[in-house]
Amino acid sequence: MSIERDERIQFHDLGTLQSVTSWIRNHEEGLAEWLKNVLRAYQANRANVDEQDRVAVLLLRDSAGNSPARIGLLDVGGATLEDVTALDVWQDPNASSRGSQSVDETTQGNGGKAYMYRMFRGMTRLMGLKERRKNCKGFDGPPDSVDRGTLGFIPSRAAGRDVPDCQWEQELRAALEPYDVRPNELPEVVRNALQARASFTIVEGVDPVDIHRGRIDAETLIERLLFHDQAVLAVQQLQVFAFHSGRLLRNGRRLELAQIRPYPGFEAERIIPVPEVLLNDDGQPLSTTRDGTRPSGRVILRTSAQNMYHAHLKLRARWKLSYRTPQMIGSKSIGELAPNSPGSYFVYGEVELAALADYVAVGRVRPEQGPLVKAIDRFVAEQIRDLAREINDLRRQEQDQGQLDEVHEENRLLDRFKNRFLEGAGLGGVGRTGTTGQVGGRGGGGPDGYEYGEEPASLEFERSAESLRVAKSVTLFPSAILEPRVKDAEGNTVRGIAIEWFSADRLVAEIRGEQLVAIGKGVTEIWARLRGFAIESRHVTVTVINADHILLTPRSIEIPLGTRKDIQAEVTDDDGGRSTDVFLEWAHDSDDPLIVRISPRGSVFGNRIGQTSVRAGAGDLTQGGVWARIPVEVKILPNERPNRPGGGFPELRVTGRDIDPETGQIRPGDPERPSLDQGVSDYDHNIWWLNLEAPEAAFYFQQRHSAPSMWRGFHAQKLVEMVGQVRMKEELAGAGREERPEVWARHKGMLDDFQAGLMAEMWQMLQPYILTGQGLE
């Protein structure tokens, strides 16, 4: 095939300019690019600036009279004719390397001049003086125009191109004058560097856009600059100072990144070598060193004592993984790499890998997507999750089961008090069965005219089940499955009566407290009895089978938030029989334990937006257990339709002790959630949780024996808060109100986020004061 080509590739000039500059959206992004360019210019193959002379000065000036505001950056590199001429070519892959063979120095040469082109209305220029020769080139013209994007010597070729016999002191004085700064007012280390090199560069722009009334909010701009990925390395390796309208900022100290105090117990950096071979999406090996032609890499993970996500401007901007070659090529949020990972809010870091130089994107905001980046992301995410789990395990409090039982009883008394209070206030309704068949207090009428019984006459199961089929090694809570209810002779519910469970053959199904454990293959019966009464329930047959293999269908499901979908588990036993009504253990692989709630029969409730893989099985795989080989991929989607709360009195339950009605299992605590917690599935059941893993609750729980009144006060406070939320919900989203239920849900979600973040941090800082009366100075 033959072709007669045009003389050259053609691009639309204005379209190209807009395309390569549009990613610069604010001044901190542009200044970060300027700082990065200074760091690069100081390298050995460019200006070769000694370590002690690597300085820079940020110059900010508000408008004054007829003089518009301006922003500049001074360094001691001394831009040459070669340097200013390099501005001419947009998208030049060799803009910063200038003959160096290092793969780490490849850039597009766009950032600094994109800022000059896009974020100023007036003239912008790069002026340098070295070896008594001055060069100056820049932009001028109407904003967002081809004329402005066409560089030229300033003020003319004759007066701006390699002008000889220039005195650096005189030129520096003239360059600083518009900023109301004199050379002798520069920091001593800057003056020394200027004297040693007799050269300087200034890049500057006149009349910056997005500056209100010509006034630069210098402190805010500097803080945002220090949060920017591209500025981090420069600020670490350069001594950067700042002036604002002639005043040296920060008492003359250099700009520094905020120190991040490490999480106690995880003070040391965690350095993990990147394997030379990782697997791609198809499971094929992928070299991380380009078959040995580039150096191997490493992952560096660090920790923060504060929750970085909830620290907002202070730390959230640094809750990232940076990608370096070692030159910065972008970053991604830790939340993107390891979503739904409790403990990950305390982790940040970087990956250094020379082979990532092939994945540099315009603007270096984040690396270009590709096979190596995907493989690295998977590897790094695993390391982040491992560290996050260690932190979360450390945060979890060891809780004595006996104390949990005592708290459960205390909570039952408070619950009865609360129900009487709500009855008098006209809130609530028919109670729900508690974790052991207890229902509120005894006797009395409800607010809707419902009469509760006083003397128990029978013990019935709300769910009619003649028999249960359970896989060996599975643990169940019979109360959650059968829902026992105490009735009087007239059929009214009697509240506040505890029940006990029994098994006819403990070698088949053993009762351990409130749990049923499937011990061995066979058939037996279980039943319930009222404690202190000769009243029993009917007997239910329990058949325990040995599962041989398990098949789950469908292969994937999507669940709108706040709704349920079923996964069918077909179990084949060791006799070859097949059934789909077997109780199993269910699990998912998300680090967020509450992303979904799964019942023992495979009903999956979408509790938080995200995705996970769900499996079902029985027993420990290392000890002969059987689990489905292929999981079900579950995705929880946003839901426009709000779910409706459950009826009856709201109920406060205790994590680590009480049963989650959605799963039929004991609800674990979560240190990432507030002490009074209600998720989407809990709203559906009209329950709240006293989350004993929350920092505040854990602190009080530890004081139960030494200061029992302190604990009781905290416990009662949480009950009152729950009642307050019930009342507020009634006010904001009750029948006939203008406020929609989904608005209340948003209020509640915002409150929970606030409590899990800022309030948890405040509580951690207040603990020493509460214990000793000291520490607030």
General description of the model:
This protein is an alpha+beta fold and 777 residues long. It folds into four domains: 14-252, Heat Shock Protein 90 (2-Layer Sandwich); 270-395, no CATH class; 547-637, Cadherins (Immunoglobulin-like, Sandwich); 658-777, no CATH class. It has 18 helices and 43 strands. The strands form twelve sheets. An eight-stranded mixed β-sheet has the order 5-4-3-6-2-1-7-8, sandwiched between helices. A five-stranded mixed β-sheet has the order 9-12-15-13-14, with helices on both faces. It has a five-stranded mixed β-sheet with strand order 22-25-26-19-32, with no helix packed on it. Helix 13 (401-425) packs across helix 17 (708-733) and helix 17 runs antiparallel to helix 18 (741-772). The chain is elongated, with a radius of gyration of 34 Å. The termini are far apart.
Summarize this entry quickly.
With 777 residues, this protein is α+β, with helices and mostly antiparallel strands. The protein has 18 helices and 43 strands.
